[in-house]
């Protein structure tokens, strides 16, 4: 699975923009809620509060699933597929 991060959010991931991820096997398919918890525990390197809020992404983080807004795909309930491309883009910028 591909997990690109951009718009400044990559700074929370040690500056790495492209992540190639193989999730651990489990009996039920992974969903976005589980993926976000996994990202928080395994990929985020600093200040997780700037990326996640509770069990979802914080406001200002655009999430695309295979180039479609995740709101159209079921958000946290979306069940991941093997070749999904999940993109996280920060729309918040300091000034």
UniProtKB/TrEMBL annotation:
The modification 1-thioglycine is found at residue 95. It is found in: Cytoplasm. Keywords: Cytoplasm, Isopeptide bond, tRNA processing, Ubl conjugation pathway. There is a cross-link at residue 95 (Glycyl lysine isopeptide (Gly-Lys) (interchain with K-? in acceptor proteins)). The keyword tRNA processing applies. C-terminal thiocarboxylation occurs in 2 steps, it is first acyl-adenylated (-COAMP) via the hesA/moeB/thiF part of MOCS3, then thiocarboxylated (-COSH) via the rhodanese domain of MOCS3. It comes from the Eukaryota. Pathway: tRNA modification; 5-methoxycarbonylmethyl-2-thiouridine-tRNA biosynthesis. Its main location: cytoplasm. InterPro entries: Beta-grasp_dom_sf, Mopterin_synth/thiamin_S_b, Urm1. The keyword tRNA processing applies. GO terms for cellular component: cytosol. Transmembrane segments: none annotated. SUPFAM superfamilies: MoaD/ThiS (SSF54285). GO terms for biological process: protein urmylation; tRNA thio-modification; tRNA wobble uridine modification. Acts as a sulfur carrier required for 2-thiolation of mcm(5)S(2)U at tRNA wobble positions of cytosolic tRNA(Lys), tRNA(Glu) and tRNA(Gln). Serves as sulfur donor in tRNA 2-thiolation reaction by being thiocarboxylated (-COSH) at its C-terminus by MOCS3. The sulfur is then transferred to tRNA to form 2-thiolation of mcm(5)S(2)U. Also acts as a ubiquitin-like protein (UBL) that is covalently conjugated via an isopeptide bond to lysine residues of target proteins. Belongs to the URM1 family. This is Ubiquitin-related modifier 1. The gene is URM1.
């Amino acid at each position: 699975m591909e997990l690109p991060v951009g718009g400044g959010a990559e700074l929370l991931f040690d500056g790495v923009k492209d992540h190639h991820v193989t999730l651990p096997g489990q009996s039920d398919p992974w969903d976005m809620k589980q993926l976000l918890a996994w990202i928080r525990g395994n990929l985020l390197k600093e200040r997780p509060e700037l990326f996640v809020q509770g069990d979802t992404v914080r406001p200002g983080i655009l999430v695309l699933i295979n180039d479609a807004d995740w709101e159209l795909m079921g958000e946290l309930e979306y069940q991941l597929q093997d070749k999904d491309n999940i993109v996280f883009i920060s729309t918040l910028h300091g000034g």
